[in-house]
């Protein structure tokens, strides 16, 4: 039986929903199992990931000496991934070094300076984590210097790839939405298994923090929490209650509130700025409770100040936006490039169009963060304008680029051109996971079951809305604006619902 048949026959998934699940990456029977039974034994084996065994062999080859550099991405997923790889290599008695470059024009890459730095330290293997897929020349340069490179990244695969060993969940063998820190957990499991013959229970009993770091990256990178991601996140939540980790303990002491991964993320994110990236790695890895508490206390105060400042900025921007032409370009050159992603994201949520926020890095180059609602593929936009950029990359609805300041005028002009023609490209279907115009009783039941397993569908309902609305009554409906009671369904053309943790959420009507 193929996956679709298994979903329909064995798991009683509605046929339309089965197709949508496959589009969401549930492409083999192991993933079906991890979706419906999200428990630790259903985590897919690390070996299933393409190139994994090759990568593990290469890491083990250099792990006995001080020959490994971990090169991380500068967001919390990259930081968590770096912590995982450091931790597991230390368990293997290796002593790797690490480096996380500052955000800026070099954002999504391994750099030549990085390679030079590695060479000067006698490094033989660089592991790029959550970054590196676009570093073609830099990987060549590393090879010339006799340095081997592994790229463990979960960003979209560019057409042209560096000639390195590439690990990417999008190549299969795991859910495509694994974060870099989820991928790093698999690397850790592989190393522990090959070196000592142990399985995940060894990590659970002796180094549970590795699971916590993995969940931290998964949540902060906003990965969908179903299947393997749900296994990791649920497990981490269990472990937080069971053990006292210094960072969580410090949070409770400082704030007087219970600590969770979600409560730590905004604090850690705001200080993930100039010079502080490495500190977060150290805080994650530290056993020194006094050090962790002192630092977190300082960071907490600082993050409250920054959040207040940025929230005021968001309000100011909201007031000043009068007219939207399909996208919003925000000039945030008065702010640090570290803070513009947060603002772009807030403005995107409010106006529901792509938001491009620009700032300067220290070298006075333009750095931009883009956030877009589901259905937009902003990587296509970046590809179309790529001649203007020094560097670009990311995900379809969260990406960024860097550019020489002199290109700004051209960028503004070309962006305007692009979006005035964009309607043609934005396909209605791409905006939704499911478009339903025919309807039967099992459909909502199927969606309701999956929503409880963490699957988030954005659904466009058309057809006999009166009938649909009457059937929806049997389920938990979240209708904050009371749309359904204000408008009679027979006067509507469509309803957009989102399956959430708490119920079916009415998003929009028309
Ligand atoms: Mn990431």
Annotated CATH architecture of the largest domain = Alpha-Beta Complex
What is the end-to-end distance? Answer: 41 Å
User: Which strand order spans the largest sheet, edge to edge or round the barrel?
Assistant: 2-1-3-4-5
> What is the CATH topology of the largest domain?
inorganic pyrophosphatase (n-terminal core)
Radius of gyration: 23 Å
Unreliable segments (pLDDT under 50, ≥5 consecutive)?
Answer: none
Our count of helices gives 21
Helical content band: 40-55%
- CATH C-level name of the largest domain: Alpha Beta
What ligands can be seen in this structure?
A: manganese (II) ion
Furnish the topology, listing elements before pairings.
Elements: H1 3-10, H2 15-23, H3 29-36, H4 52-63, E1 68-72, H5 76-91, E2 97-99, H6 112-120, E3 125-129, H7 136-144, E4 148-152, E5 165-167, H8 180-196, H9 200-206, H10 209-220, H11 228-242, H12 246-255, H13 261-270, H14 277-285, H15 289-320, E6 328-331, H16 340-351, E7 355-360, E8 366-371, H17 378-384, E9 389-395, E10 398-403, H18 408-420, E11 434-436, H19 441-452, E12 458-461, H20 465-472, E13 477-478, H21 483-486, E14 495-499, E15 504-509
Parallel strand pairs: 1-2, 1-3, 3-4, 4-5, 6-7, 11-12, 13-15
Antiparallel strand pairs: 7-8, 8-10, 9-10, 12-14, 14-15
Helix pairs in contact: 1-2, 4-8, 5-8, 5-10, 5-14, 6-7, 8-10, 10-11, 12-15, 13-15, 15-16
The chain binds manganese (II) ion.
Textual characterization of the structure:
The protein has helices spanning 3-10, 15-23, 29-36, 52-63, 76-91, 112-120, 136-144, 180-196, 200-206, 209-220, 228-242, 246-255, 261-270, 277-285, 289-320, 340-351, 378-384, 408-420, 441-452, 465-472, 483-486; strands at 68-72, 97-99, 125-129, 148-152, 165-167, 328-331, 355-360, 366-371, 389-395, 398-403, 434-436, 458-461, 477-478, 495-499, 504-509. The model has no long low-confidence stretch (mean pLDDT 92). It has 510 residues and is of the alpha/beta class. It is globular, with a radius of gyration of 23 Å. It has a 5-stranded parallel β-sheet with strand order 2-1-3-4-5, sandwiched between helices. Helix 5 (76-91) packs antiparallel against helix 10 and helix 5 packs across helix 14 (277-285). Manganese (II) ion (MN) binds at residues 77, 130, 154, 179-180, 221.
